[in-house]
Amino acid sequence: MIVAANFKTNMTRRSTQEYMRALEAFIATGHSEDTVMVFPPATALDRWESSVIVGAQNAYATHHGAYTGEIGLEQLEEFDIRTILIGHSERRHVLGESQEEIVHKCHFYQEAGFTIVYCIGEPLEIRESGSDALMEYLEAQLEGIDLGYRNLIIAYEPVWAIGTGLTPSSDDILLIHNALKKMVQRPLLYGGSVKPNNAREIMALASVDGVLVGGASLNIDDFKSIIQATE
Ligand code: 13P
Questions:
Q1: Where along the chain do its domains lie?
Q2: What distance in angstroms lies between residue 190's CA and the mean position of ligand 1's atoms?
Q3: Fold for domain 2-228?
Q4: Which of the four pLDDT bands, split at 50, 70 and 90, describes residue 227?
Q5: Residues near 21 by Cβ (< 8 Å), separated by ≥ 6?
């Protein structure tokens, strides 16, 4: 199983360091068969001697250059960061990244050999338009992405489930994951209000290869419980 923590715009360099120490101590007691990832804010990126994979929440498709406010490959390489989240709904819908920009970013970081956790997910109005519209929407979000890339991981995160405490039913997750698995034969994570009390049921679903956790990952005990739910 893959269990990933997306801190978003939370935590500091110091609190991330404390968190990583606690997480490493926990991982050292088991779970060697699971892949645990943490995506801290860019200011907390660092080099950790750890079995936990630390990734970037975002970066610009450049080695370096004049892109005020952005970081590029050079800033990630300093800390040996080799994993990146691309296409998260907050970047698409809040920060206005287009599919074209997202595809460009994917190609750039694929070229650099990164593991890409590529996020897709539909807003509520699409979900309410029926399953054909839903699958068409998700398919469009996969357009232009090299689905055969060996370091690609897909995260299905319905926008309406992110940070709301709402989740699709297990049957719905299964249905959508099964349909996605036909399009892309890569590990497929579920994200959106994953909590200690629903993680076990979600990860028990056949086509779920792991979870991408936002809010509940900020509390180390909750995140540890979610890792424990892989058992
Ligand atoms: P929540 O777990 O807070 O719903 O966030 C999910 C998410 O966006 C992870 O990338």
A1: 2-228
A2: 10
A3: TIM Barrel (3.20.20)
A4: very high
A5: none
Query: Active site residue: 31, 88, 90, 177, which one?
Result: 88
Q: 91 CA to middle of ligand 1, Å?
A: 13
pTM: 0.97
Kindly report, residue by residue over 3-53, the tens digit of the pLDDT.
Answer: 999 999 999 999 999 999 999 999 998 878 999 999 999 999 999 888 999
b/e map 199-223, b = 16+ CB within 10 Å: beebbeeebbbbbbbbbbbbebebb
C-alpha span between 148 and 191 (Å, rounded): 22
List all residues 6 or more positions away from 170 whose beta carbon is below 8 Å from its beta carbon. Answer: 201, 202, 205
Given pLDDT bands bounded at 50, 70 and 90, which one contains residue 126? very high
Share of the chain above pLDDT 70, in %: 100
Q: Is 157 a catalytic residue?
A: yes
Annotated catalytic residue 93 = no
11 sits in the region (left: phi over 0; alpha: psi -120 to 50; else beta) called left
**What is the per-residue pLDDT across 131-167, written as a single tens digit (0 to 9) for each?**
999 999 999 999 999 999 999 999 999 999 999 999 9
